């Protein structure tokens, strides 16, 4: 209840208005939740601007610069999309898990394992070197997803069988995944002692827009790759699953009230494992698309923390797969052109403030704040 | 204390024009309330009538939005329960606020300024034993709270208030958790307290208790006083019921004669553990036939919940069998039970029965989302689901703005209607209802009971698990009594005395033997 602090009544002068916080008695309107997301971004930009200004910079110029170098022309827009593709996929990975209140913090590790699985196809090799491109794309995607799913399956099984906290297990498995990759790039697939594998042959690369430049010169130099198709198709499928399907209903019910789900005869253990595997597969696909579409080799620094950024994106999109696409483009722009402003400081700060604002905004979903006149209400 | 013989007109509390608002509700609307020295004053009303709110204002938990409070002749405005206690007003809540791992004395001393550093427990044990003696509150000061029965824990709460020098004791539905024998003991304690000059506010919605214990009654209805300070001697139960509900209440339930049919549920020597891994069911055997309501009486926590959960497959059975319609469903998945027509109305409406942030639609399709026509292939057919929800909303009179409303915003009665609508529309062969009317107001209780009787008439087997004896007696055709995970016996004559003894652990055979001798 609002007021159980010790307030001695007295004739002291009181401010004639006070803030009253009440529980909501009806659902907030539909536009409310997206509005809070947009507001979180605006607040983050304002705080970022304040910091830039205090540091002696010109916030307006800085933001204009970011906008220009991320969305200002077809070329940079394409680069933004390249950054956004892995973010979309990990954002989707987090969204499905978070819908069930399964805190998969392991998208990063699943990303690395996906990259490993895809590389395996080329480096082991699983397919002959001169296999057709389409076969490479399909096989690499399948292996990326299988390995990502495996990395989700382990914490899922631990949670279902022994109730191991998935936050800890997925986080720890991120480190294992990175070291696993390191072993292969340092020892097994190392090229001439460098900590990276050899460059993949061209037919193991994901098709890019620039590949079409021969036919349509407009596309020349554009780096956006086929991963975008993966991401958008995945988003649509996930949206269908979460909002239209029986399975999506089960996930929603378990996420909101696991005891009610059990009472309705839904197996929670099976769903934990399945959701963790799908989540892992999506993050693995992100790793595969990064390897096949951008890096073209297995190496150490393939992710500037995509898996963790995915968490923020999922929240910003309010766990809606279609909104994940938009949120990822925003973050892609921030990461790409933010570097033009400062390599790490301000862009990371903005991401962080977005996350904090989003978490804080949950309060407004539950409560409404009114300013009332004292004594009147 | 004993020599203060004062005329009973002396007012200790006087509340005038109390107004308390909650978002969307006017919980108290210009309420007046007086309490005299040495009386038990019952505050009667349905759930949500504003009884607890009014007393929470008096006890300093809420602050009134309007009105004045006068305690022992002084104008007060409590900002916290501590201030209220300092003024001599203490409240015993429905849910006890005790630390299980600590002793009675430690619990009573918690939050006080004395003792300051060294606990000197033996001295305080003695002091508390003395107060307990004075009021007939039998409880061992050195016992740990977790070892105590619910009745004893309540005594600790009362002692806590007495130790703090409370002169006005507010008891919020104190009998809800007690066995009949414990209720009697509580009433003796209350009498001894009033004899020694304390005043008691007794919040209740149970008419017969109010008639028994109180000197005066104030009745609240929808936040307003419908009658204030009536002498209990001068009124009848029917009067009070009318004042409480605002219309005549028929106490007799229209129960048609139904011939019990085939055996539906047969439970044989069932054993199971509770969440703490302690044996909760210890060889329970019972059966329910078609067209029959069978009651299961017992004080809360004697294995009723565990029984309901094992029957539907939510809790593993360690020994024994459950047979429904001739099929063995022992330890079978919940979903199989649902397909076999087993339906459960769980005791906990919000934590088990519904999913709070999902819509009415999502909540009513909980058990048939994977059945035609709501399920079509891999997907849930949203328009079918919506149609189904709308139908249920109308035929069960669920009062909500839309079927897309989150169920957490529903009142208790409406929430129960959502659950009943879902469970009944699945046309169950066996319905297990656990405390289906708990916390509902008289109107809603009538509705729920009517629905259960309808189930009986359509030939379903109903197992009614309840702590409300009155309800069990009026609805059931037969009655089992459970005590510490064992069935004490089966009755069909509704002998309250026998039931009371069985609820406290005497087997029916023992009672009849004693009677024969």
Describe the structure.
The complex is a heterodimer of chains A (377) and B (517). With 377 residues, chain A is mainly α. Chain A has a domain at 86-322. Chain A has helices spanning 32-54, 59-71, 74-99, 107-123, 133-162, 166-188, 227-244, 246-256, 258-263, 268-295, 306-316, 321-341, 345-366; strands at 17-23, 367-373. A two-stranded antiparallel sheet of chain A has the order 1-2. The radius of gyration of chain A is 24 Å and the shape is globular. The two termini of chain A are 16 Å apart. Chain B has 18 helices and 22 strands. A six-stranded mixed beta sheet of chain B has the order 6-7-8-3-9-10, with helices on both faces. Chain B has a six-stranded mixed beta sheet with strand order 16-19-20-13-21-22, with helices on both faces. Chain B has a four-stranded antiparallel beta sheet with strand order 2-1-4-5, covered by helices on one side.
SS strand fraction of chain A: under 5%
Strands across the major sheet of chain B, in which order? 6-7-8-3-9-10
Mean pLDDT of chain B: 87
Q: Count of helical segments of chain B?
A: 18
Helix content of chain A: 55-70%
Show unreliable segments of chain B: none
What is the H level of CATH, i.e. the homologous superfamily of the domain at 263-341 and 427-516 in chain B? P-loop containing nucleotide triphosphate hydrolases
What is the rounded Rg of chain A?
Answer: 24 Å
The ordered H/E elements of chain A are EHHHHHHHHHHHHHE
Secondary-structure-derived class of chain A: mainly alpha
What is the β-strand count of chain A?
Answer: 2
**First-residue to last-residue Cα separation of chain B:** 47 Å
User: Which CATH-level-2 architecture of the domain at 263-341 and 427-516 in chain B?
Assistant: 3-Layer(aba) Sandwich
Number of helices of chain A: 13
- By CATH reckoning, the class of the domain at 263-341 and 427-516 in chain B would read Alpha Beta
Helical fraction of chain B equals: 25-40%
* Rg of chain B, Å, rounded: 25 Å
Strand order of the largest sheet of chain A: 1-2
Which residues of chain A sit in consecutive blocks of at least 5 with pLDDT less than 50? 1-10
- Largest interface, counted by CB within 8 Å of the partner chain's CB: A-B, 35 and 48 residues
């Amino acid at each position: 209840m609002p007021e159980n602090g010790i307030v001695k009544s007295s004739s002291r002068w009181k401010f004639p208005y006070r803030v009253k916080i009440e529980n909501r008695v009806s659902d907030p309107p539909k536009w409310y939740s997206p509005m809070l997301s947009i507001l979180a971004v605006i607040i983050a930009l304002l705080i970022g601007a304040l910091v830039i200004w205090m540091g002696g910079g010109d916030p307006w110029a800085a933001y204009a610069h970011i906008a220009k170098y991320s969305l200002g022309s077809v070329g940079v827009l394409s680069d933004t999309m390249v950054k956004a593709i892995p973010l979309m996929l990990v954002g989707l990975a987090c969204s499905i898990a978070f819908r069930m209140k399964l805190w998969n913090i392991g998208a990063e590790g699943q990303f690395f394992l996906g990259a490993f699985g895809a590389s395996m196809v080329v480096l082991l090799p699983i397919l002959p070197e001169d296999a057709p491109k389409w076969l490479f794309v399909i096989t690499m995607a399948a292996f990326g997803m299988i390995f990502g799913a495996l990395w989700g399956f382990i914490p899922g099984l631990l949670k279902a069988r022994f109730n191991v906290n998935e936050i800890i297990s997925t986080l720890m498995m991120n480190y294992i995944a990175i070291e696993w990759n390191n072993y292969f790039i340092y020892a097994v697939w190392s090229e001439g002692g460098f900590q990276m594998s050899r460059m993949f042959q061209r037919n193991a690369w994901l098709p890019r827009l620039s590949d079409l430049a021969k036919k349509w010169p407009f596309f020349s130099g554009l780096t956006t790759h086929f991963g975008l198709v993966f991401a958008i198709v995945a988003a649509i499928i996930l949206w269908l699953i979460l909002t239209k399907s029986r399975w999506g209903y089960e996930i929603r019910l378990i996420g909101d009230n696991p005891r009610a789900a059990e009472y309705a005869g839904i197996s929670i253990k099976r769903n934990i494992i399945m959701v963790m595997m799908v989540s892992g597969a999506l993050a693995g696909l992100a790793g595969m698309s990064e390897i096949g579409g951008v890096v073209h080799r297995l190496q150490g620094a393939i992710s500037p923390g995509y898996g963790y950024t995915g968490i923020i994106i999922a929240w910003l999109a309010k766990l809606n797969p279609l909104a994940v696409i938009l949120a990822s483009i925003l973050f892609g722009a921030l990461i790409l052109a933010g570097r033009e402003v400062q390599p790490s400081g301000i862009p990371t700060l903005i991401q962080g403030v977005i996350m904090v604002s989003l978490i804080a905004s949950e309060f407004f979903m539950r409560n409404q704040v009114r300013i009332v006149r004292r004594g009147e209400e | 204390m004993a020599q203060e013989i004062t005329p009973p007109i002396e007012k200790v509390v006087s509340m005038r024009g109390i107004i308390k608002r909650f978002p969307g509700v006017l919980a108290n609307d210009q309420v007046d309330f007086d309490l005299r020295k040495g009386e038990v004053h019952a505050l009667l009303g349905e759930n949500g009538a504003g009884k607890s709110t009014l007393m929470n204002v008096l006890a300093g938990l809420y602050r009134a939005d309007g009105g004045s409070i006068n305690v022992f002749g002084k104008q007060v405005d409590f900002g916290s329960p501590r201030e209220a206690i300092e003024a001599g007003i203490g409240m015993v809540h429905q849910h006890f606020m005790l630390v299980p791992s600590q002793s009675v004395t430690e619990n009573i001393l918690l939050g006080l300024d004395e003792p300051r550093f060294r606990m000197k427990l033996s001295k305080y044990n003695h002091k508390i034993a003395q107060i307990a003696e004075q009021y007939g509150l039998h409880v061992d000061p050195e016992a740990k709270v977790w070892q105590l029965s619910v009745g004893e824990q309540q005594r600790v709460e009362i002692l806590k208030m007495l130790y703090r020098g409370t002169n006005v004791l507010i008891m919020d539905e104190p009998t809800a958790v007690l066995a009949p024998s414990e209720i009697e003991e509580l009433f003796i304690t209350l009498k001894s307290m009033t004899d020694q000059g304390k005043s008691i506010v007794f919040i209740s919605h149970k008419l017969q208790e109010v008639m028994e214990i109180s000197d005066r009654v104030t009745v609240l209805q929808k936040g307003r006083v419908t009658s204030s300070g009536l002498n209990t001697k001068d009124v009848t139960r029917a009067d009070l019921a009318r004042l409480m509900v605002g219309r005549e209440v028929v106490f007799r339930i229209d129960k048609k004669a139904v011939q019990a049919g085939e055996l539906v549920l047969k439970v044989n020597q069932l054993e199971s553990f509770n969440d703490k891994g302690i044996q909760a069911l210890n060889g329970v055997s019972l059966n329910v036939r078609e067209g029959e309501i069978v009651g299961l009486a017992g004080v809360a926590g004697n294995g009723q919940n565990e029984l309901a959960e094992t029957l539907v497959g939510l809790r593993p059975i360690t020994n024994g069998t459950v047979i429904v319609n001739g099929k063995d469903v022992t330890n079978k998945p919940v979903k199989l039970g649902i397909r076999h027509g087993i339906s459960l109305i769980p005791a906990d409406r919000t934590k088990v029965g519904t999913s709070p942030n999902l819509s009415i639609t999502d909540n009513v399709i909980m058990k048939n989302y994977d059945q035609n026509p709501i399920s079509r292939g891999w997907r849930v057919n949203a328009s079918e689901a919506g149609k189904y929800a709308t139908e249920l909303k109308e035929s069960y009179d669920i009062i909500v703005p839309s079927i897309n409303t989150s169920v957490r915003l529903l009142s208790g009665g409406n929430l129960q209607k959502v659950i009943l609508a879902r469970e009944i529309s699945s046309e169950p062969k066996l319905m297990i209802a656990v405390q289906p009317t708990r916390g509902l107001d008289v109107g809603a209780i009538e509705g729920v009971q009517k629905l259960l009787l309808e189930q009986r008439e359509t030939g379903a087997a109903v197992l009614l698990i309840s702590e409300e004896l009155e309800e069990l007696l009026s609805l059931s055709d037969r009655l089992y009594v459970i005590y510490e995970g064992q069935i004490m016996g089966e009755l069909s004559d509704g002998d309250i005395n026998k039931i009371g003894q069985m609820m406290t652990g005497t087997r029916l055979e023992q009672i009849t033997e004693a009677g024969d001798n």
